[in-house]
Write a structure and sequence with these properties.
Chain A: It is found in: Cytoplasm; Nucleus. Chain A: It comes from Gasterosteus aculeatus aculeatus. Chain A: Component of the proteasome complex. The complex is a heterodimer. Chain A is an alpha+beta fold. Chain A contains five helices and 13 strands. In chain A, strand 12 and strand 13 form a beta hairpin. Chain A starts with about 20 loop residues before the first helix and ends in a 44-residue tail after the last strand. Chain B starts with about 30 loop residues before the first strand and ends in an 11-residue tail after the last strand. By secondary structure, chain B is α+β, with helices and mostly antiparallel strands. Chain B is built from four helices and 13 strands. The longest helix of chain B has 22 residues. In chain B, helix 1 crosses helix 2. In chain B, strands 1, 4, 5, 6, 7, 8, 9 and 10 form an eight-stranded antiparallel β-sheet that branches. Classes of the chains: A alpha+beta, B alpha+beta. Chains A and B meet through helix 3 of A and strand 5 and helix 1 of B.
Chain lengths: ~280, ~230
């Protein structure tokens, strides 16, 4: 695929558009020795579980820029529609914008059909968009919601492949979270058990993966209600300082004191009026 | 970008870019490493596949369904890039459904195979997709068509595909006989896919089987502990 300089022809039937030239820009920049600025990534642990009455989505809240934590409390569970939410891992901007675009289109679609949107529809829209961009939109998503056909959970990869499963994890901490799920997941769990499971899975990611950290956000979606719990668990509260490096006045004794006045002459004075109307 | 995800072995972790916090496999493409198989018998076809999808060395989905319905009596077995094959299958499902409504008749398996071939050949430089199209129609009965990477189309009585297929060509050549019954075909498919799963790292999980005939589609799953056992050590 690297032989094609400039453009790649992707599925005209599904898309109709030619791949963005940002890919070319990056290639050309690298040739001259420059690297594009590191995008802010959500190192991330995100996961989802289908339980008896619906789905629960969970996420950590750390956003990294290289090795620095850029945001200690970012929100990774995005709104798609009143009954559908989506967790995003990968490039923060990509997950944010992709979910917003699909949320907007889905609202229009729902108005057009006169029906509550289905999770499968959101899945189709997301996978077709990500496939069109051939993986250059770095968005790895966990999509979950409840519609007329019951609760559904999908994992969506940056290249556009999707899997429909009862439990999924994504992001750099996904292995730690999946270990928890594989150990303790059961079909048709109660809400409290499922919440505890998701909380523990995200916690595993937070404490064992350097790219994930801070708090645990949860989103419980059932037929009748939606609980967006942010934060569900402040797993990494900032400690209270026990001491102070400020020295009290008098710690160093004063032996002598002399005061010299600084006489300044006003040379010029200009007044600029500010128009505050 | 990963090249020919089906046949090449995994060469170890590629250089992790800029960020050490995010491991390499998070940026690698999802591949259905795979073993897939399809056989014709008198009156229909039997298809089988493993259930493993990998991103690099991590198994992204251990219960994948690689036997995808394209129409009532036409299925495809997917191998290669998960995104590419899912997208192609969606496109062909739409095209075939539309064509069938125009015709007011169930579509031919050969038509479905040609639609796959058209997409796989036209975009051959961009795609990594090895597909087996199998089904039943009134005109020619059970048929298996092979559309490998590159976009060739050929009808075969038996066909295997995916990275695990290399390990079972000998088994297929020696054990397949023409005019087998449906149950013999199912047994052979289950055995072949199990053997491939045993040897190929990119194949594993459960064995999914389906038989397609005039009467419809019958699906079954053989779980890990029920797989035929061959290892003596």
């Amino acid at each position: 695929m690297n032989e094609h300089k400039g453009h790649k022809y992707i599925f005209q039937i599904v898309s109709g558009s030619i791949l963005s030239w940002n890919a070319v820009l990056e290639g050309e920049a690298n040739k001259v020795g420059y690297s594009l600025p590191a995008a802010r990534k959500t190192g991330t642990t995100i996961c989802g579980v289908v339980f008896k009455d619906g789905v629960i989505l969970g996420a950590d809240t750390r956003a990294t820029e290289g090795m620095i934590v850029a945001d200690k409390n970012c929100s990774k569970i995005h709104y798609i529609s009143p009954n559908i939410y989506c967790c995003g891992a990968g490039t923060a901007a990509d997950t944010e914008m992709t979910t917003q675009i699909i949320s907007s289109n889905l609202e229009l679609h729902a108005l057009s059909t006169g029906r509550v949107p289905r999770v499968a529809t959101a899945n189709r829209m997301l996978k077709q968009m990500l496939f069109r961009y051939q993986g250059y939109i770095g968005a790895a998503l966990v999509l979950g919601g409840v519609d007329c056909n019951g609760p559904h959970l999908y994992s969506i990869y940056p290249h556009g492949s999707t899997d429909k499963l009862p439990y999924v994890t994504m992001g750099s901490g996904s292995l730690a979270a999946m270990a928890v799920f594989e150990d303790r997941y059961k079909p048709d769990m109660e809400e409290e058990d499922a919440k505890r499971l998701v909380r523990d899975a995200i916690a595993a990611g937070i404490f064992n993966d350097l790219g994930s950290g801070s708090n645990i956000d949860l989103c419980v979606i059932t037929k009748g209600k939606l609980d967006y719990i942010r934060p569900h668990d402040e797993a990494n509260k900032k400690g209270v300082r026990t001491g102070d490096y400020k020295y009290k006045r008098g710690t160093t004794s004063v032996l002598t004191k002399s005061v010299t006045a600084l006489n300044l002459e006003v040379v010029e004075e200009t007044v600029l009026t500010m128009d505050t109307s | 970008k990963m090249a020919a995800a089906t046949m090449s072995p995994y060469f170890g972790q590629q250089m992790s870019s800029k960020n050490d916090l995010v491991p390499a496999w998070t940026s690698q493409e999802v591949s259905t490493g795979t073993t897939i198989m399809a056989l014709e018998y008198d009156g229909g076809v039997v298809i089988g596949a493993d259930s493993r999808t990998t991103t690099g060395a991590y198994i992204a989905n251990r219960v994948t369904d690689k036997l995808t319905p394209i129409h009532d009596r036409i299925f495809c077995c997917r191998s290669g890039s998960a995104a590419d094959t899912q997208a192609i299958a969606d496109v062909v499902t739409y095209q075939l459904g539309f064509h069938s409504i125009e015709l007011d008749e169930p579509p031919l398996v050969e038509t479905a195979a040609n639609l796959f071939r058209a997409s796989c050949y036209r975009y051959r430089e961009e795609l990594t997709a090895g597909i087996l199209v199998a089904g039943w129609d009134r005109r020619k009965g059970g048929q298996v068509y092979c559309v490998p990477i590159g976009g060739m189309l050929v009808r075969q009585p038996v066909s295997v595909g995916g990275s695990g297929s290399s390990y079972i060509y000998g088994f297929m050549d020696s054990n397949y006989k023409p005019n087998m019954t449906k149950d013999q075909c199912l047994e052979l498919t289950a055995a072949a896919v199990s053997l491939a799963m045993e040897r190929d790292g990119s194949s594993g999980g459960v064995v999914r089987l389906a038989s397609i005939s005039k009467d419809g589609v019958e699906r079954r799953v053989i779980l890990g502990n029920q797989l035929p056992k061959y290892s003596t050590h």
